[in-house]
From TrEMBL:
<dbReference type="InterPro" id="IPR009075">
    <property type="entry name" value="AcylCo_DH/oxidase_C"/>
</dbReference>
<protein>
    <submittedName>
        <fullName>Acyl-CoA dehydrogenase</fullName>
    </submittedName>
</protein>
<dbReference type="InterPro" id="IPR006091">
    <property type="entry name" value="Acyl-CoA_Oxase/DH_mid-dom"/>
</dbReference>
<dbReference type="Pfam" id="PF02771">
    <property type="entry name" value="Acyl-CoA_dh_N"/>
</dbReference>
<feature type="domain" description="Acyl-CoA dehydrogenase/oxidase N-terminal">
    <location>
        <begin position="10"/>
        <end position="120"/>
    </location>
</feature>
<comment type="similarity">
    <text>Belongs to the acyl-CoA dehydrogenase family.</text>
</comment>
<dbReference type="GO" id="GO:0003995">
    <property type="term" value="F:acyl-CoA dehydrogenase activity"/>
</dbReference>
<keyword id="KW-0285">Flavoprotein</keyword>
<dbReference type="InterPro" id="IPR046373">
    <property type="entry name" value="Acyl-CoA_Oxase/DH_mid-dom_sf"/>
</dbReference>
<feature type="domain" description="Acyl-CoA oxidase/dehydrogenase middle">
    <location>
        <begin position="124"/>
        <end position="216"/>
    </location>
</feature>
<dbReference type="Pfam" id="PF02770">
    <property type="entry name" value="Acyl-CoA_dh_M"/>
</dbReference>
<feature type="domain" description="Acyl-CoA dehydrogenase/oxidase C-terminal">
    <location>
        <begin position="229"/>
        <end position="377"/>
    </location>
</feature>
<dbReference type="InterPro" id="IPR006089">
    <property type="entry name" value="Acyl-CoA_DH_CS"/>
</dbReference>
<keyword id="KW-0560">Oxidoreductase</keyword>
<dbReference type="InterPro" id="IPR037069">
    <property type="entry name" value="AcylCoA_DH/ox_N_sf"/>
</dbReference>
<dbReference type="InterPro" id="IPR036250">
    <property type="entry name" value="AcylCo_DH-like_C"/>
</dbReference>
<dbReference type="InterPro" id="IPR009100">
    <property type="entry name" value="AcylCoA_DH/oxidase_NM_dom_sf"/>
</dbReference>
Length: 379
């Protein structure tokens, strides 16, 4: 049953209706096949872009939808409920445009933002390296200034949409220590940039995650975003918004698992009654429903603070932690509701459980979220 959302405007209600329509027609018919066969759904992101769903929270001035973040996140949740991998890709696309939008010079925005937000280009976010995940400040991919260029050398890891994206928001080393990292906007076809083969993942099979290799790749110096050395604070500020996206994706996965579980519990009978009518199972479903509703409320609270221009970094970490832990628990319990068949590929719940796991890991593991939250508690 569709979630009965509290939305702030007719525009927002129309957007949710549009998203459900696109999800019904574009995502739902192919998700099972593409996830099973690990095929990339060429054209699907472009269809979302054409429907205006790839740049909802960005300002209209640059071709974005001008929607409040809480509306964007609820749209994202609806997409992820149908296809988590696409929800993640949409969230990462938004994350990748944040540095240019928030830190770019006016002239850079005029040059690149309209194209990035028009919906026909896909963005990726390239912070992680094989030896620098949680400890992002340890990254070593180098950007060395040479005349009008930066020369890029080194490896990046774990790039969502690696090899498929049109631009990469790259964080590379221009100096020593945490103040020696800078942010660049790299075109996907840059000479000297190549990609590894897609990682063989537990879930999110339809969208590739790859390494990237820079081998004396020469990038125009005017593709530096912000100032030299500002990269790490740009990366972290983008992640505050991105974590809310991951929270919304996690709630979408959890909602989809809950819906499947409730449907099955109303059909399956044991001991002469529907399994939902056994109190032990009914209470399990009640706890799942409560977890989904409270996780949604947590990300919406953080998003509304963001929309009001209030600090929201701690709340974004709380939302990511609560929503992704809830998704892991709810999807695991959904498999339980299905009994033996829940452990087969005949039903979507096993996929939801595999998909929920990554939300506890990327854009800062949940241990790192606790670190951020505990730092916020210090005097
Ligand atoms: C499918 C997928 C997609 C991804 N997409 C992207 C992407 O698009 N762009 C990108 O840049 N990155 C991406 N990542 C990378 C992801 O953000 C990192 O994997 C994540 O931040 C964890 O880093 P790590 O894997 O190096 O783990 P590590 O940092 O090695 O951590 C290992 C374990 O130690 C724990 N740990 C580490 N430090 C601490 C500490 N101080 N206190 C307590 N515990 C700690 C961690 O929580 C974890 O449990 C992706 C990863 C995956 C798997």
């Amino acid at each position: 049953m569709p979630v009965d959302r509290l939305l702030p405007s007719d525009d927002a209600r129309d957007l949710i209706a549009l998203t459900r329509d696109v999800a019904d027609k574009v995502l739902d018919p192919i998700v099972d096949e593409y996830e099973r066969d690990e095929k990339y759904p060429e054209g699907v992101m472009a269809q979302l872009g054409a429907a205006g769903l790839l740049s909802l929270p960005q300002p209209e001035q640059w071709g974005g939808g001008g929607q409040p973040y809480d509306v964007y996140l609820q749209v994202l949740e609806e997409i992820a409920a149908r296809w988590a991998a696409i929800g993640v890709a949409v969230s990462v696309h938004s994350l990748s445009s944040h540095p240019l939008l928030a830190y770019g010079a006016e002239e850079q925005k005029q040059r690149w933002l309209p194209g990035m937000l028009a919906g026909d280009q896909i963005g990726a976010y390239s912070l992680s390296e094989p030896q620098a995940g949680s400890d992002a400040a340890a990254l070593s991919c180098k950007a060395t200034r040479d005349g009008d260029n930066y020369v890029l050398n080194g490896s990046k890891a774990w790039i969502t949409h690696g090899g498929k994206a049109d631009f990469y928001t790259l964080f590379a080393r221009t100096g020593e220590g945490s103040k020696g990292i800078s942010c660049f906007l790299v075109p996907g076809d840059l000479e000297g940039l190549s990609f590894g083969k897609p990682e063989e993942k537990m879930g999110l099979h339809a969208v590739p995650t790859t390494s990237a290799f820079y081998d004396n790749a020469r990038l125009d110096a005017d593709r530096l975003i912000g100032t030299e050395g500002q990269g790490l604070s740009i990366a972290f500020s983008a992640l505050d918004s991105g974590r809310l996206g991951i929270a919304a994706v996690a709630v979408g996965i959890a909602q989809a698992a809950l819906d499947e579980a409730v449907r099955y519990a109303n059909e399956r009978t044991t001991f002469g009654r529907k399994i939902i009518d056994h109190q032990g199972l009914g209470f399990l479903l009640a706890d799942m429903a409560a977890a989904v509703v409270s996780a949604r409320a947590t990300y919406l609270d953080a998003a509304r603070r963001r929309d009001l221009g209030l600090p929201y970094s701690t709340q974004a970490s709380v939302a990511k932690l609560i929503a992704t832990d809830a998704a892991m628990k709810v999807t695991t319990d959904a498999v339980q509701v299905f009994g033996g068949v829940g452990y087969t590929r005949d039903f979507r719940v096993e996929r939801f459980m595999r998909e929920a796991k990554i939300t506890q890991i990327f854009e800062g593991t949940n241990q790192i979220q606790r670190l951020v939250i505990s730092r916020g508690l210090g005097s």
